[in-house]
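Title: [Solved] Endoplasmic reticulum-Golgi intermediate compartment protein 3D structure

Original question kept below for reference.
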Amino acid sequence: MLMVSQLKKFDAYPKTVDDFRVKTFTGAIVSIVGGIFILWLFFSQVTLYFSTDIHHELFVDTTRGEKLKINMDITFHHLPCAYLSLDAMDVSGEHQFDVAHNIFKKRLSSTGQPIIEQPPIREEEINKKIVKNENDVQGCGSCYGAEDPARGIPCCNTCEEVRNAYSKKGWGLDPSTVSQCLREGFTKNIVEQNGEGCQVYGFILVNKVAGNFHFAPGKSFQQHHMHVHDLQPFKDGQFNMSHTINKLAVGNEFPGIKNPLDEVTKTEVAGVGMFQYFIKIVPTIYEGLNGNRIATNQYSVTEHYRLLAKKGEEPTGLPGLFFMYDLSPIMMKVSEKGKSFASFLTNVCAIIGGVFTVFGIFDSFIYYSTKNLKKKIDLGKAY
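Solution (posted by the thread starter after getting help):
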């Protein structure tokens, strides 16, 4: 009992006798409001505890020898699939002509609806022979002067082989004069698709150096160290480069990423032109709460439009959609950070104690102010 009586001296919460406690109406109102305020702050802390903070760090990018995966989904509203060619090149000297691997094309009507219900055509199949008949030439067909056995082109049996042979020579080709193209319906396809649109989607792999990739009409080739597109098959066509970039991402996506070119639409009304997007790529590492790491990229972009010719005039350059990209030497690390339970408990205790103390002071102020006011009123009545 002596020990218990000694321990009572350390009681930091001495109790008063119930007879000396005064309960008031204003005290009850203040208590209810304070309780509601504590509950609101408590649930706010619970929500905050289960949320994650995003931390950003910047440091020099020391990675090398990697490839960039560029995911794309672009709709050309008034340019047929038969016209379009995708090319990529970079400052290291690597060129990718008429990229076909992992690229798909879907024909669209003038209103933007798919024309035929069938799987989309892979790019390398778009110009291949699809019709066979008894007039097909067997053996060695003519390349129309572009034969080059030294380069492995002794003959040409398909329209695509003739076009490749002409490209390696740096010559332009009129498909209407080539029997292989007439037999395979290449010229007919161009005429039939005139006025249609095209959705191009898929991805390309490029070196992690500055470069560009672009969509332009005509088959591309290199002549005298210059990048050239053969527009002769489409001499009667109109190159309207109006487009919608449904998606353009560099690398894998992660939660919260924003690609500034997604859902961007540009319409060409004045004539024929060149759309240019200058992209600055920032290498990014995303680290989730579970420790998973995603190596990807973010980018910023500026844009420019160059009018090449008014309606009815000959273009002074190559109409197309160009993406020029460069890489930042700085890498960003995006990390998800959670909150500790100890921090949550500390905040909850601070909320309860703080609100209880503040509202207690407020209640005391009201109580003593009211009490003093009543005394003055009673004193005035006495006189």
